[in-house]
Design a protein that fits this description.
The protein is of the alpha/beta class. It is 31% helix and 16% strand.
Length: 231
């Protein structure tokens, strides 16, 4: 694929884990932070475009994603851990004595991490550009997941992800491959809801998506017969 040409990949040891990164170019460093359920691949076009303009574009897979280690313990995924990974990455790839501050670009969950990066270590950030996730100041009166449940209900995807093993079992029913395809091709302009037995807005036995090649050749599969033409 032309969009992948010249992008280099390597694994670096940071903050007690092995992290996969993709990079291209020479010059001031731009750190790209992906969201959910994405990888470094989210930024492939930006990596090529900005490296051609004289920047060094660097995009890691965050901990738990893609080619980066995924610790077993849920407690190992706090904002402190993830920001710590990124600071360790910068210390390795752009040491403060050579490049004390870098540009940061974040999207979705990656944008939230980017806000924390700026709060915790402003000494390492030259400028921030975030997409889709505004800054929300911490308010000790409200817990994030409980607040989301009140605002969006129990079927909201983040709320559904809280019980270990539950959503994994439901994804297994339709296959992880299909679950990822459903997530990446979700086109309903509303919050993502995953009701039990009706994931992504249609029954689990609904033949909504085929193979990747089918998606490429026929991007719009049309109405689902099982759903009687529903979305």
């Amino acid at each position: 694929m032309k969009s992948m040409e010249g992008i280099q990949h390597k694994t670096v040891s940071v903050n007690g884990i092995n992290m996969h990164i993709a990079e291209k170019g020479e010059g001031p460093l731009i750190l790209f932070i992906h969201g959910f359920p994405d990888l470094w691949y989210t930024w492939r076009h930006q990596i090529n475009g900005l490296s051609a303009l004289g920047y060094r574009a660097l995009a890691p897979d965050l901990r738990g994603y893609g080619g980066t280690d995924a610790p077993d313990c849920v407690a190992d995924y706090t904002c402190f851990h993830v920001v710590g990974d990124l600071i360790a990455l910068l210390d390795t790839e752009a040491p403060p004595d050579k490049e004390d501050k870098v540009f940061v670009v974040g999207h979705d969950w990656g944008a939230i991490i980017a806000w924390f990066l700026c709060l915790f270590r402003p000494d390492r950030v030259k400028a921030l550009f975030n997409l889709s996730a505004p800054f929300i100041p911490c308010d000790p009166r409200f817990k994030p997941v409980e607040t989301l449940e009140v605002l969006l209900g129990k079927d909201y995807y983040i709320v559904r992800f809280q019980e270990p093993g539950e959503i994994e079992a439901e994804f297994a029913e339709i296959s992880l491959r299909r679950a990822v395809l459903e997530l990446l091709s979700y086109r309903i302009p509303d919050p993502l809801y995953l009701p039990k037995g009706n994931l992504f807005g249609h029954p689990l036995d609904c033949p909504r998506l085929g193979t990747i090649s089918t998606m490429v050749e026929k991007p719009d599969p049309g109405p689902c017969k099982v759903c009687n033409g529903g979305p």
